[in-house]
């Protein structure tokens, strides 16, 4: 396959995943603003930071306003990280790599774009938000489903899957990066109502509330939440899960191409950390430091894959 | 003109009852409900949007991806009629290939005095870089799209030979898919010849033109200018259907004397490149130095026999509008036969007598720029206002050699579906011919373009034309 195609499909799935993650975060923010309006502003502000568009938002607006944040994240043309912009980018990449996709996948991406373009053509009113958020989740799930159900398991598929897991891990790590402090041990107020809500929000932004509850007897505990999101390989949005998937996909590529490259060493190192760290060790090292290290290692791995598989000249 | 022109309608002839080839379709249609068909029409549009069969309009900010309107009334051609067209196109394609070989080698046709030397020497479409080059398999026009018009029961004319990078074949294929999907019952009643073999035929035909340096199964690729090109959908479609890579200039470079594409495993040489990039942009080292769409050095590789470029560079000299007027001589010179398909009588404004005639008859004539395309820069005399004619006359007088003129043909019509039912509209036809050392293959069908505006003769999609499915009947 062409190096450009590998890059195109990798980014197509990253953009799809990113638009879905942004929708999940808006959902979490909405939930807070409906249940605990006093915490809403700081929550929206965290979401802007976790999606990496806070400075762009404040270039347009002087203060946080839930409705404005929502529209900014969904459709604002000055926000190149909006859901609509991500879907546009995903589709542009899909057009570029059209010959590597099945008709099903292409149509799923194209339809996602057509539907959202029409739903997001006008400012979104609060009453329409739930419908739009679920439409984003459904459309992106449909793309993932068609990929799963119709694509041949070859190098093209490996790059697609890696795109998904890279972005998903990146997203979970950014949520942790912005919210790490509420998971840190504190003598002042342990397990207050306020903490419970905050902790729940972290899980909600990664769509893991129910999974957490069913695996942890329903009790919110910051250490368990951190362990769940970082180390639990059962959770499809944990860092460990995503990285073991990336490792597996890179291993398929090595097998397919008969050759291990620099990126294989790097992914093994990252996965080794997940396999041999306990949550206590991570807290001892520093949760924030751990997450920051992870983000930069992840970025470096992405660059190495680009080089090893010639995405660009 | 005093007489109201009457046009040959392919469904109804000059009368009110359907001609034989349309009789089965007509009885089906008469039992259909127009409202249901209009709904089908909307479904077809949704299908085209979902598939992404759109074209880009240059210089239009909003809605840059547009659909070419599709009309669901098929254009039907009998097997007998098709037989004549097929023979005629094949003859023309063979003649064009011989002509191109000759023009870039000994120029016998010029020596024989059948074509004036300045038609070649002073023609921008003539590429001196191709002199003495022998393309693999001696094929120049691997793909030709011959534009035909019809004026009566047995009257067909060739309007243009598109020998550079003819487009539109994806519409031929997708229009058929759409019709099969919408009206399966029609295809079980009426025996229509298939077109879906085109991508396989294209792949086979291109493969058989591989360069001698290639000794295994050839590696093919389609070269596109990129996703912003108006025909990008077609480029992706053809690459996909043939199962070959779709490449852009920046995916390619010359490595060890071969043109190679950058893959995840390293650079891989290409044997046959179906390029949808114009000559000018193909190689910045040989042609337009500002081009970023092509591959620096590809012409050197080509001249050394390291790659097949389809169509060959320099084929534009064969479909140039000034050369067009010599096509009857060209066919005769190289085949020794009379042309099967007629040329439209053409006045070359470069010739004083012809020019004088054209100036005196502008109101009746169609005047075209020699190098124009897409229906731009032309005058349709009978449809033009006094002012348009005067303006055009001024342009014509400054550079007569730049123009040719033809009589306004009474183009046939085929009905389209409107709110009020069927209404006749003018059409043309572009069948696609594949040339290889094994022979010429013409897919039974083609792209029927239809002028959607009442009375209009301009069928180009960039100017509001639509398309129809073209049926060749199994007689």
pLDDT averaged over residues of chain B? 92
Q: Approximately what portion of the residues of chain B adopt beta-strand conformation?
A: 15-25%
Major beta sheet, strand line-up of chain B: 3-23-22-19-18
Structural class of the secondary elements of chain B? alpha+beta
Structural class of chain A: mainly alpha
User: What gyration radius of chain A follows from the Cα positions, in whole Å?
Assistant: 19 Å
Average pLDDT score of chain A: 93
The low-confidence runs of chain A, each spanning 5 or more residues with pLDDT under 50, are: none
Number of domains of chain A: 2
Helix content of chain A: over 70%
Distance between the termini of chain A: 15 Å
Number of helices of chain A: 15
The largest sheet of chain A is: none
Number of domains of chain B: 3
- Give the overall shape of chain B: globular
Largest interface: A-B, 22 and 22 residues
What are the secondary-structure elements of chain A, in order, as H or E?
HHHHHHHHHHHHHHH
Any idea what the shape of chain A is? globular
Question: Can you tell me about this structure?
Answer:
The complex is a heterodimer of chains A (313) and B (475). Helix content of chain A is 76%, strand content 0%. Chain A is built from 15 helices and no strands. Chain A has helices at residues 3-35, 37-50, 54-60, 66-74, 83-96, 103-119, 129-150, 155-183, 193-205, 209-215, 222-231, 239-257, 262-276, 279-285, 287-308. In chain A, helix 1 packs antiparallel against helix 7 (129-150) and helix 8 runs antiparallel to helix 15. With 475 residues, chain B is an alpha+beta fold. Chain B folds into 3 domains: 1-191 and 319-340 and 420-475, no CATH class; 212-306, Rossmann fold (3-Layer(aba) Sandwich), CATH 3.40.50.11290; 345-408, Dna Ligase, domain 1 (2-Layer Sandwich). In chain B, the strands form 6 sheets. Chain B has a 5-stranded mixed β-sheet. In chain B, strands 13-5-4-20-21 form a 5-stranded mixed β-sheet. At the A-B interface, helix 1, helix 5 and helix 6 of A face helix 2, helix 9, strand 7 and strand 9 of B.
